[in-house]
Each structure stands twice: as structure tokens, then as C-alpha cells.
Design goal:
The chain has 194 residues and is mostly helical. The longest helix has 21 residues.
Length: 194
């Protein structure tokens, strides 16, 4: 048992991040990943969803880790068990919702580890919430609640029983505002659609 614990501790020390930028600074994010800027702009043009909203969701959901998953539950306090959900990738989309997205957009090769697809997924999801729930596309707070709880959960106001989630939604909203303010100070081309 002692050797098993040592093995897992050593293994966790080998896990590295593929992130080499400040996740709280949109200029640094796009300077390090210039294609992401183009993908986020295309999502804004296609779905009308602000770039700052897209990035604030990704920062909250995966901290820009392409293979992010919810942590496993621990068995006996230290043995990795099952994950609480099928959330995966930049957007932390669930298996079923991701499949719905692929069919709806005919983007059958979409990959949750691909930033372009994750950005488009968030645009698609927010557009769907706008249409069904009548949430303005610039309303980061309510869109995050609908994103986290699902459209049905949002309609039932399930978030009201989760004070922690209301605080997270405020945090995501603040991050989106910061990204919005930062983008005006970035030295990017003037034809950006932020």
C-alpha cells in the first residue's frame, strides 16, 4: 500500500501544463496563441458571442488546459476513483452536449481539445441559450449559470440552491470585464472585432 501511494505521488509530479501564458491577461493569451485570436473572432462573427465571454468561460472551466477533466473522486481517501462527469477539454463540454453540438453544426470532426472547436461550441451554446432563454449575449453572469446548469436547470433556477455557483458566475463576469478592458490596450490589428 505504501508503494502504491509513492507511485501516485511520483506520477502526479510528472503532470505538466501546456500553458505558457498568463491566463488572466487576454493580450498575453493571444500573443502566445495568435490563432486563438482568429478563432475567437470567427466565433464572435458567427454566433454574436463576445470574445471576452468565450475566454472567461474557458478560463473558468479548464484554465486553458486542453485535456482538462474534473478531478477523480478518491476511494479510501487516496485511490483515484471515477470522475463526477464526462466534462472534457477547453470548454468542459459533457459527452452528450458535445455530440448534440456536432450534429447541430455538422462539425462531426470537432474535438474538445481543439481551441477552435471549443470556442465555436461556446458560441453555439450561448446562442442557443439566447434563443431559448432570452438571455442577452453580453450577459456573462446569466449565460454562465445556463452553461453550468444546462438550459433546463437554468429554467428551473437550480442555481439558486448553489450559493457557490452564484459566486463563480460573478467571478466569470468580472474576468470577462477585465478581458474586455485589456483588449483595448493590446497591440493587435485595428480590424479586430472585439
Amino acid at each position: 500500500m505504501k508503494y502504491l501511494l509513492i507511485f501516485f505521488l511520483l506520477l502526479s509530479g510528472c503532470i505538466t501544463t501546456d500553458r505558457s501564458f498568463n491566463t488572466a491577461n487576454i493580450c498575453d493569451i493571444f500573443k502566445t496563441n495568435p490563432k486563438w485570436k482568429s478563432y475567437a473572432e470567427k466565433t464572435k462573427e458567427k454566433w454574436g458571442v463576445p470574445v471576452s465571454l468565450q475566454l472567461s468561460f474557458i478560463k473558468q472551466e479548464s484554465s486553458f488546459e486542453r485535456t482538462a477533466r474534473p478531478p477523480r473522486k478518491k476511494v479510501l481517501g487516496f485511490i483515484p476513483g471515477l470522475r463526477p462527469s464526462s466534462a472534457y477539454g477547453y470548454s468542459q463540454a459533457l459527452d452528450g452536449t458535445w455530440e448534440e453540438y456536432k450534429v447541430s453544426t455538422k462539425n462531426f470532426n470537432a474535438d474538445r481539445k481543439n481551441f477552435r472547436d471549443a470556442s465555436d461550441f461556446i458560441g453555439w451554446y450561448v446562442d442557443g441559450s439566447y434563443r431559448l432563454l432570452k438571455i442577452d449575449k453580453s450577459d456573462v453572469y446569466n449565460h454562465y449559470l445556463a452553461y453550468h446548469e444546462g438550459k433546463g436547470g437554468y429554467q428551473k433556477k437550480s442555481y439558486n440552491k448553489k450559493k457557490w455557483l452564484l459566486e463563480v458566475a460573478k467571478k466569470v463576469e468580472r474576468q470577462a470585464k477585465e478581458y474586455s478592458n485589456q483588449i483595448t490596450k493590446c497591440n493587435f490589428h485595428k480590424n479586430s472585432v472585439f
